[in-house]
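testing teh design pipeline on a random one, pls ignore if ur not involved
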């Protein structure tokens, strides 16, 4: 062989998924393929989980009928966000819509994620492929948002049938409910990544129940002493309740932007936490 001959190089073999991940623009975090996670989730929902999804819709509807119609006959009219008097059913309906969006998102982003993470080992398998933790987070949170949107749309239709929609602005409650679901889903998935046992998962219900009861869902915030009012105003569900109440009657103030901003920050923090936790757990 002559001195000027180029050395022979072995042909490159197939590139591994981790090597592909390192060469991506976003490194191992994101492969722009969250749709694969979404497609898998939709197939699983269609085959096994559809009954659970349907059952979750009826809880706030039953509360609306029992409290709004039953108790509403005793309470009568109450003061709405814009100062006008509305029926008690119209007063609690937007609050129950916020609860419905929260419940739909929290179920998918906590119990569902907990099983996939700790028992089915689904995320480990996903992250052994070219998928990154941000793909998994976006896919799972999208599924939670889809559930929240379905609940919100169905509940808004029930409000229309009951004659509780008095303003065209009320249709904006559906995208606003998706925003609420986004905040709860992104943060819920991140928190669930720290939980290891079913006993620890009970803490979620321990937190959700007081929020449901004391976030001005059934009565105004003013009934509480001032220190308790300050505490309630830090809870995410209260911001959702107030946001949907304002939208339901078309009463928009600077507080409306505050409520929206609260959920935008909550979503950003939750997405960051979820991505970092998945990376820490499965890309060591």
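output:
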């Amino acid at each position: 062989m002559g001195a000027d001959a180029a050395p022979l190089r072995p042909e490159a073999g197939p590139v591994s998924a981790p090597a592909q991940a390192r060469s991506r623009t976003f490194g191992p975090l994101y492969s722009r393929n969250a749709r694969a996670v979404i497609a898998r989730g939709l197939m699983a929902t269609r085959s096994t989980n559809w009954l659970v999804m349907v059952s979750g819709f009826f809880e706030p509807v039953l509360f609306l009928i029992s409290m709004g119609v039953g108790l509403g006959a005793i309470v009568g009219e109450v003061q709405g966000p814009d100062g006008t008097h509305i029926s008690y059913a119209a007063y609690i309906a937007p609050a129950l819509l916020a609860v419905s969006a929260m419940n739909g998102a929290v179920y998918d982003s906590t119990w569902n994620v907990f099983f996939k993470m700790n028992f089915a080992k689904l995320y480990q398998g996903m992250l052994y492929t070219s998928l990154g933790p941000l793909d998994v987070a976006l896919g799972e949170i999208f599924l939670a948002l889809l559930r929240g949107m379905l609940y919100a749309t169905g509940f808004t239709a029930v409000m229309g049938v009951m004659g509780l929609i008095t303003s065209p602005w009320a249709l904006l409650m559906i995208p606003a409910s998706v925003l609420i679901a986004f905040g709860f889903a992104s943060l819920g998935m991140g928190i669930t990544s720290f939980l290891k046992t079913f006993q620890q998962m009970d803490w979620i219900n321990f937190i959700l129940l007081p929020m449901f009861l004391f976030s001005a869902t059934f009565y105004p915030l003013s009934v509480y002493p001032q220190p308790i009012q300050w505490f309630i105003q830090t809870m995410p569900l209260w911001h959702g309740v107030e946001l949907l109440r304002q939208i339901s009657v078309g009463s928009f103030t600077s507080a409306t932007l505050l409520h929206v901003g609260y959920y935008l920050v909550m979503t950003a923090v939750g997405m960051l936490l979820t991505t970092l936790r998945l990376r820490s757990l499965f890309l060591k």
